[in-house]
UniProtKB/TrEMBL annotation:
The gene coding this protein: nuoL
Name assigned to this protein: NADH-quinone oxidoreductase subunit L
Location(s) in or outside the cell: Endomembrane system; Membrane
Annotated membrane topology: Multi-pass membrane protein
A biological process term (GO) from this entry: electron transport coupled proton transport
Annotated keywords: Membrane, Transmembrane, Transmembrane helix
Length: 640
C-alpha cells in the first residue's frame, strides 16, 4: 500500500486544479463536494499507509529523478515511515474536518470566491503533505515554501481589506527570514556531503565536524523559528487571524506551524549530536511558551487568545525537542491538533452566531444558546489546560517530566506557563459562555447553535481531545502502555542510544503530577469565579495589564527598530540615490546622445552643392590615404 502513497498529496492537488480552474462555472455545492471529497480520499489512503507502515515498516518510494547532473542527483522521493505516516493522518484527518466545517462557515461567499477559497485550502494541504513526505531536504523545502505561499493567499483571502493584506505580507516576509536559514543549511549539507537525502545524511553524519553539525542545526532552527512562530519571528501568527477562522484552524492545528517541529524531529540525530543547538532550542521554546502565555492573559479578541495560545504551545513542543523528548514533542503536536482545531472551530461557531463579533467582553451567557459549541469548547479548554485524563495532560506532562530530568529550572518555568494557560483559557471560556449576555439586543435575538456541518466536526474533535492522550500513557501508570513511543521508536532509535537520559522515580512523577494538577484546578476555579459574573471589564487594563494587552509593545519595537529605519533607507534610495545619481547617469547618457544627434543633423542642410563638396573632399582624402606611398603623393611632394 505504501507504493500508492503518492495518491495522498495527489488528491488535494486535483481538488486545487478543478476548483481553481472551474471556480466561475461550478456551483458552491459541487465545489464543496470536490474540496471535501479529495480530502476524505486522501485521509483514507493515509489510513491504509499508516497500517501498512505499522505492519511492514518503513520504505522509500522514488517517483522520478528530480535534479541530475553527472554523479549528483536529487530524486523526487517520498519517505514513508512511522513519523511521516503519523503526520499524514493528522494533516488529512484534521484537514478533512476543517474542509467540511468550511462548507457551512463560508457559504455566504460568492461562488467564484468560494471556489478560490477551497482551491487555496486544497493547495495548502498538498504543500504540507509534500513537506512531510519528502525523502530529502529539497522536497521538504518545496513543501515548506508551498505552505508559506498558501498562508499568504489565505490570510489575505479578503483582499479588499488593506489590514488583511498587511497581515498576509507580514507573514510572508517574516517566513522568508526564517527560510533563508533553512536554505543555507541545505547548501551547507550539499557542500559537505554532496547529498541532502535523509538516509545518506544521517548515515554519514560522522563525516561532519562538530562545528558543521552545530551550524547546520542552528540554521535549520532559524527556519523553524519562522515557520513555527518562535521568538523573535512569532509576531506574524497572531496577525494571521485576519484570514477566515477555518484557515486559522488549519494553520494552527494541522499544517504550517507544525512544520518546524516535524523538521527538527526528522533531523533528530543531528540535534542529538549538537548539544549547543539543543540547549538553544529548549531555551527559545521555553521563553516563547512563557512570553506568549503572558500576552494571552490580557487579550480580548477570541481568536487572538487562541493565537497566542498556539505560540505558547509550540514553545512547549520546542522545549521537548530541546531536551531530547522527541516522542513527547510529536505527541503534543498530535493532541494539540485535536484541541486547538476544536478551539478555533468553536470560536468560529461563536463568531458565526455573534454576527462576526470577536470581542469576548461583548459576549457572555452563550452556554444556553449554543449547547454543543459550549460543551465541546469546555472539553478543549480542559484538554489544553492539562487536566487528567484529557489528551493535553499526557503530552504536556511528558514534556515537563523530560524537562525536569534535563534541568529542574526548565520544569518550574514550564509549569508556570501551564498555570497561565489554565487561567487565560478559562477566562476566555467564562467570559464567552458563562454569566449574562453583554452584547446588543439584536445579537442576543439571533443567537443560535451552528448547523450540523459545523457541529459534527466539533463533536469528532471533542472526542479526540478527550481520548487522544491514551496512545501515550506513561510507564508510571502502566508498563509498556505508551503505544506512540513504541510506534515511533525506529525514528528516534539512534538518538536514544546517544542520549544520556535521567529517569525520574515513580514517586517523583506522582508527586509532580499531583501538585501540578492541584495547582491547575485551583487556577481554573479562580478564573471561573472571577470572570463568570463579570459585567464590565473595560477598566481592568492598567499598568502591567496595559502592557500585556499591547503585547509587550513588541510590534511597536520592531516597527521602530527595523521597519521605520528600513523605510527611511528605501526613501533615501528612491529619492536621492535613484533620482539624483542613477537617473542622472542614465539621463546624462541620453542628453549626450541627443546633443550629438543635433550636431550631426546640421550636416543634413538640404544644399546639394554642400553635399557634392563634402563628397569630393572625402574622395580626395580617401585617395590620399589609399595611395599614400604611390605616384600621386610623390608628385604632390615635388610640387610643394
Amino acid at each position: 500500500m505504501s507504493k500508492l502513497v503518492y495518491l495522498v498529496p495527489l488528491f488535494p492537488l486535483i481538488g486545487f486544479l478543478i476548483n481553481g480552474l472551474g471556480r466561475k462555472s461550478l456551483s458552491k455545492s459541487m465545489i464543496s463536494i470536490i474540496g471535501c471529497g479529495v480530502m476524505l480520499a486522501s485521509f483514507v489512503v493515509s489510513l491504509l499507509v499508516f497500517f501498512d507502515v505499522k505492519a511492514n515498516g518503513a520504505t522509500t518510494v522514488e517517483l522520478f529523478s528530480f535534479i541530475k547532473a553527472a554523479d549528483f542527483q536529487i530524486p523526487f522521493a517520498f519517505q514513508v515511515d512511522q513519523l511521516s505516516s503519523l503526520f499524514l493522518l493528522i494533516i488529512t484527518g484534521i484537514g478533512f474536518l476543517i474542509h467540511l466545517y468550511s462548507a457551512a462557515y463560508m457559504h455566504e461567499e460568492e461562488a467564484q470566491h468560494f471556489g478560490r477559497y477551497f482551491a487555496y485550502l486544497n493547495l495548502f494541504v498538498f504543500s504540507m503533505l509534500l513537506l512531510v513526505l519528502g525523502a530529502n531536504y529539497v522536497i521538504m523545502f518545496i513543501g515548506w515554501e508551498g505552505v508559506g505561499l498558501c498562508s499568504y493567499l489565505l490570510i489575505g483571502y479578503w483582499f479588499k481589506n488593506d489590514q488583511y493584506n498587511y497581515a498576509a505580507k507580514k507573514a510572508f516576509v517574516m517566513n522568508r527570514i526564517g527560510d533563508l536559514g533553512f536554505l543555507l543549511a541545505v547548501f551547507w549539507l550539499l557542500f559537505k556531503l554532496g547529498t541532502v537525502t535523509y538516509g545518506d545524511v544521517f548515515s554519514r553524519v560522522s563525516e561532519l565536524s562538530s562545528f558543521d553539525i552545530t551550524a547546520i542545526t542552528i540554521l535549520l532552527f532559524v527556519g523553524a523559528m519562522g515557520k513555527s512562530a518562535q521568538i523573535p519571528l512569532y509576531t506574524w501568527l497572531p496577525d494571521a487571524m485576519a484570514g477566515p477562522t477555518p484557515v486559522s484552524a488549519l494553520i494552527h492545528a494541522a499544517t504550517m506551524v507544525t512544520a518546524g517541529i516535524y523538521m527538527i524531529a526528522r533531523s533528530n540525530i543531528l540535534y542529538t549530536l549538537a548539544p549547543v543547538s539543543q540547549t538553544l532550542v529548549a531555551i527559545i521554546g521555553l521563553a516563547t511558551a512563557i512570553f506568549a502565555a503572558t500576552i494571552a492573559l490580557k487579550q480580548n479578541d477570541i481568536k487572538k487568545v487562541l493565537a497566542y495560545s498556539t505560540v505558547s504551545q509550540l514553545g512547549y513542543m520546542f522545549l521537548g525537542l530541546g531536551v531530547g523528548a522527541y516522542t513527547g514533542a510529536v505527541f503534543h503536536v498530535m493532541t494539540h491538533a485535536f484541541f486547538k482545531a476544536l478551539l478555533f472551530l468553536g470560536a468560529g461557531s461563536v463568531i458565526h452566531a455573534m454576527h462576526h463579533e470577536q470581542d469576548i467582553r461583548k459576549m457572555g451567557g452563550l452556554k444556553k444558546h449554543m449547547p454543543i459549541t459550549h460543551i465541546t469548547f469546555l472539553l478543549a479548554c480542559l484538554a489544553i489546560a492539562g487536566i487528567p485524563p484529557f489528551s493535553g495532560f499526557f503530552s504536556k506532562d511528558e514534556i515537563l517530566m523530560a524537562a525536569y530530568s534535563n534541568n529542574p529550572i526548565f520544569y518550574y518555568v514550564g509549569l508556570g506557563g501551564a498555570l497561565m494557560t489554565a487561567f487565560y483559557m478559562f477566562r476566555l471560556y467564562s467570559l464567552t459562555f458563562l454569566g449574562s449576555f453583554r452584547g446588543t439586543h439584536e445579537q442576543e435575538h439571533h443567537l443560535h447553535e451552528s448547523p450540523a456541518a459545523m457541529t459534527i466536526p466539533l463533536i469528532v474533535l471533542a472526542v479526540l481531545s478527550v481520548v487522544g492522550g491514551f496512545v501515550g500513557i506513561p510507564e508510571v501508570f502502566a508498563a509498556d502502555a505508551h503505544s506512540l513511543e513504541n510506534f515511533l521508536s525506529p525514528i528516534f532509535a539512534e538518538s536514544s542510544k546517544l542520549a544520556h537520559e535521567h529517569h525520574l522515580t515513580h514517586s517523583q512523577e506522582y508527586i509532580m503530577m499531583g501538585v501540578s494538577t492541584i495547582l491547575i484546578i485551583g487556577i481554573i476555579v479562580f478564573a471561573v469565579t472571577k470572570f463568570k459574573k463579570a459585567s464590565n471589564i473595560q477598566d481592568e487594563n492598567s499598568g502591567i495589564g496595559k502592557v500585556l494587552e499591547n503585547k509587550w509593545y513588541v510590534d511597536e519595537l520592531y516597527d521602530t527598530v527595523i521597519v521605520k529605519p528600513l523605510h527611511l533607507l528605501s526613501v533615501f534610495f528612491k529619492n536621492i540615490l535613484e533620482k539624483n545619481i542613477i537617473d542622472g547617469m542614465v539621463n546624462g547618457v541620453g542628453k549626450i546622445v541627443g546633443y550629438g544627434s543635433r550636431q550631426l543633423r546640421l550636416l543634413q542642410s538640404g544644399q546639394v552643392g554642400n553635399y557634392i563638396l563634402v563628397m569630393v573632399m572625402v574622395m580626395v582624402i580617401f585617395i590620399l590615404i589609399w595611395f599614400n606611398d604611390l605616384t600621386i603623393m610623390k608628385f604632390l611632394k615635388k610640387l610643394f
